[in-house]
Design goal:
single chain, mainly alpha, 4 helices
């Protein structure tokens, strides 16, 4: 949502997930970098799970990504409200 609010659009072409994580850093700035980098590492790990192995992610890792996603949401929503108030949910 932050990417769209900033006026960008990520297409569904090859590499679109990676571009999304780069795009959120461009849209929000430095505050998004730790989350973007974290979610990109998770994306790469998911690719290993999907294409090479099984049972790679642990329950702890699954809980951690849910926690990080909530933290990211808590960062993005105020950013949208401040920078794009007409788009606030």
């Amino acid at each position: 949502m932050a990417i769209a609010c900033a006026g960008y659009r990520v297409t569904t072409s090859a590499g679109h997930h990676k571009i999304s994580f780069e795009g959120v850093k461009l849209a929000i700035g430095k505050a998004a970098a730790p989350y973007s980098d974290y979610f990109d590492r998770c994306r790469r790990k998911r690719n290993v799970i999907d294409y090479d192995d099984a049972c790679v992610a642990t329950e702890t890792e699954a809980q951690e990504i849910v926690k990080k996603a909530k933290e990211f949401l808590d960062m993005v929503e105020p950013w949208i409200a401040e920078n794009h108030p007409s788009l606030k949910a």
